Amino acid sequence: MANALYDTGRNAFLLGQINWSSNSFKVVLLSSAYSVNLATHQYLSDITAGARVGTSAALTTSTPGAGVANASNITLTAVSGSQITQFVIYRDTGTEGTSQLIAYFDTATNLPIQPNGGDITVQWSTDASKVFKL
Known about the structure:
Shape: globular
Number of domains: 1
Largest sheet: 5 strands, antiparallel
Number of helices: 1
Strand content: 25-35%
Number of strands: 10
Radius of gyration: 14 Å
């Protein structure tokens, strides 16, 4: 699979239910125990807790422009656990059953990575697509 947007996440943007500059977004690091389904997975609750390796603080400097989502790089501290093979951006509502899945990544520099208790930084692309492009 390649990096992609969840169908329900794209639809939520089109319906005006998600605002990249004002909603809270986080990254969840995942092990190979997660099997992505871009068509049917909608909420964080669709990702089993056993597949989650770590969760970031909220993304900052979330700015849109020309259909491109941009944000500051993020660092997750003291990450340990299973090998990380993928990660997901989701809109954090504070409730797993309403936290909308947005973007799926399984292709990135240094993936897969085995956490060792140290920090893991996610650096967004510097090209025209930044975090992702609608």
